[in-house]
Amino acid sequence: MKTNILTLALSFLSLTAFAQKSEIRDAGNAVEDGSYSEAQQAISQAEPMLSEANDRWTERFYLYKGQAYLGTGENVSLEDLNTAAQAFQKAADMGSEEAQEGLIAVRNSLVQGAISDQNAQNFSEAAEKLHTSYQLSGKNDTIHLYYAANNAVQAGDYDTGLEYLNLLKDEGYDGSSVEYLAVNTDTGEEEIMGSKEQRDLMIKTGDYSDPSERQIPSKKGDIAGLIARIYISEERFDEAIEAMDDAKRENPNDIELMQAEANMYYSMGEKEKYNEIMEEVIEIAPDNASLYYNLGVNSADLGNKEKAMSYYEKAIELDPDMTEARMNIVALVLSKERDIIEEMNNLGTSQEDNNRYDELQEERNDVYKEAVPYLETLIEKDPTNLDAIRTAKNIHGQLGNEEKVEEMNTLLENATNQ
After folding, report:
1. 20-170 to CATH, choices 1.10.287, 3.40.50, 2.20.28, 1.25.40
2. Is the distance from CB of 69 to CB of 102 less than 8 angstroms?
3. SS3 label, residue 335
4. Residue 55, Cα to own-chain centre: how many angstroms?
5. Is the dihedral of CA 255, 257, 258, 260 positive or negative?
6. What DSSP letter does each residue of 354-393 carry, written as one string?
7. Secondary structure E strands in 235-386
8. Alpha helix (H) ranges present in 97-141?
9. Distance of CA 82 to CAs 78, 122, 132, Å?
10. 3-state secondary structure of 76
11. Is 16 exposed, middle or buried (0-12, 13-18, 19+ CB in 10 A)?
12. Angle at which helices 142-154 and 158-170 cross, to 10°
């Protein structure tokens, strides 16, 4: 009787192992055919019997499971990607090289998914996917944690953003690097290569030319700035200043960091302090047009129009194509009109008032004439700038320049149809 029971038990185990191997094999065939739902179903049927499988079949099971849940890698849910990653990791721990490739594919899918989420402004989802990719890298790809932090902040999830940013700060993350570029001879487009060696190899093939390098600046300033921004939004001003001071101790002359500090004070309403720091930045980087532009904006906010004008003029001198600076100069010039109009509106009907009205009208026309050269240059450099064209049209209308009004109408029509 015992022998019969033992024989039956052994037969049952043999049948179980056979069925389990069959389901695993079916999952592998389904994956190969691209039938990922069918593969997942076979995996679900085999999983309860997995304890009876030997190491070789167990490794296959986890490899196929990872492949089934990864699928094509496109539009895969975070839950399925996590399932795939866990399965690939188990197969990799058992020695599967194919599973190692699967882990890389999962991380690529996470990053591509995060990019799509960012473009759709689904910042929370992007942050979660990038953080998962960071963890799957063994916490080595810190750049993904940096971008996860940025997306969390964009989503308004300041607690998560602060957690990630403080991790980066504690690890001394810098983020500076060198990009290696070359021009694709077929498309004429500049492309980023994975490494200097890859770039040099592609140059030798003749498919690429014009090798170059681009320095990616340190991200410590951005990190400190984001931490400070979170504290400022929560009105934790002392902590914001402390976070910035900590970063500055390590990098006292880091321009990005100094700009972040200036922006912090600007956000706190301390615009004089902003100006003070930005003047220091200009001493370090006197040829940076954007710095002068930002100082111009702040000086205008503080009511110092003369200083704002000088900063905008310097920005244009350094970067003649900076349309924002020219538009702001136009706005500064036209702001003189307000006092003139106010006085005109308060005049009476006496002869003296009528004479004064005529004088003020001339002053107003002089203001328009002062703005015209800036607008003409702006439109010449950017013929699709609708704001500039409309402003020029209105000014020429006030000055009675009908030919110019028609010219602006033509430009408006062309710009609108582009």
Report:
1. 1.25.40
2. no
3. coil
4. 45
5. positive
6. HHHHHHHHHHHHHHHHHHHHHHHHHHHH-TT-HHHHHHHH
7. none
8. 97-119, 123-136
9. 6, 19, 8
10. coil
11. middle
12. 150
Q: Is the pTM of this model over 0.85?
A: no
Buried-exposed string 295-306: b where 16+ CB fall within 10 A, e elsewhere:
bbbbbbeeeeee
Asked whether 282 and 291 are in contact (CB, 8 A), the reply is yes
Amino acid at 366: D
pLDDT of 58-77, one tens digit each? 888 888 888 888 888 888 89
Give the start-to-end residue ranges of the domains of the chain: 20-170, 177-216, 336-418
Pull the structure tokens for residue 226: 């984001």
* Tokens representing residue 271 in the block: 């615009």
Which residues, 6 or more positions from 107, have their beta carbon under 8 angstroms from its beta carbon? 133, 136, 137, 141
CA 109 to chain CA mean position, Å = 18
DSSP labels, 230-245? HHHHTT-HHHHHHHHH
Strand-pair partners of 179: 214
Q: In this predicted model, what pLDDT tens digit does every residue of 113-168 receive, in sequence order?
A: 999 999 999 999 999 999 999 998 888 889 899 999 999 999 999 999 999 999 99
- The 3-state DSSP composition of the chain as helix, strand, coil percent (nearest 5) reads 75, 5, 20
What 3-state class would DSSP assign to 219? coil
66, two tokens: 């990872």
